[in-house]
Amino acid sequence: MTTDLSTAERLSATLSLIEACTREAGRSADAVQLVAVSKTFGPAEILPVLDAGQRVFGENRVQEAKAKWPALRANYAGVELHLIGPLQSNKVRDAVALFDVIQTVDRPKIAVAIAEEMGRSGHVPALFVQVNTGDEEQKAGASARDAEQLVNQCRDELGLTIDGLMCIPPLNADPAAHFLRLAQMAGDFGLQKLSMGMSADFESAIRHGATHVRIGSAIFGART
Ligand SMILES: *Cc1c(COP(=O)(O)O)cnc(C)c1O
To answer: Are 184 and 176 in contact (CB under 8 A)?
Structure first.
């Protein structure tokens, strides 16, 4: 996509691609939700996307989201915010207060902290477990080996509802193999939702059953 398109035009083109790909995959028109990843961008870039009707956004840092979204939300009803970056224990209170969906539950300690904070505050964001499908040392996410135990612990010991799984495939790998693996794991665990696919690979993710695609640069342009 060329840089002289406006943000709203890139949003519209992205939604068209998602729709075409969903249809080609034989899935129902509303099967895939766009999470517009607005990290690093400010109101000047986000407002045209809100004005165009997009309401679901992803942010990867709690503090950044806390600084910019309350003011935006005050003027736009129905915003749904997803946390897609790693969560630290000391940010759990803010995260539970601010986000509608936390996609990055990845270890027992954070699950326990989220459960406690939900009980304390009464805020109940939807939850996904992040799986490190490439078993990359530097990447967040439960290892494929630990994921099932984490999902079971959330459900059985902590009373948390886990809606689905999320992954970020390794940079230099074929993403399709990771999407396939995540879809199989979700099936095995009885989970319905799959957050997978970014600007470069969301079409493949949709073919493999993504219910949420997290798209930043294709809409907002390159991050600096
Ligand atoms: C930044 C980010 C995205 C969006 O990446 P693009 O390549 O800009 O679409 C998706 N998922 C996560 C977890 C991210 O941190």
So the answer is: no
Q: What is the pLDDT of residues 39-92, one digit of tens each?
A: 999 999 999 999 999 999 999 999 999 999 999 999 999 999 999 999 999 999
Q: Cα(147)–Cα(142) distance, rounded to whole angstroms?
A: 5
Amino acid 224: pLDDT: 85
- Give the distance (Å) from ligand 1 centre to CA of residue 214: 6
Task: Please say whether the beta carbons of 191 and 154 come within 8 A.
Answer: no
Nearest CA to ligand 1 atom 11: 214
Alpha-carbon distance 224 to 222, whole Å? 6
Single-letter amino acid, residue 87 = L
Rounded CA separation 132/97 (Å): 26
Q: In this structure, are residues 144 and 169 in contact, taking their beta carbons and an 8 Å threshold? A: no
- Beta bridge partner(s), residue 213: 34
Judged on CB neighbours under 10 Å (0-12, 13-18, 19+), 132 is buried
DSSP state of 60: S
Contact 37 CB / ligand 1 (< 6 Å)? yes
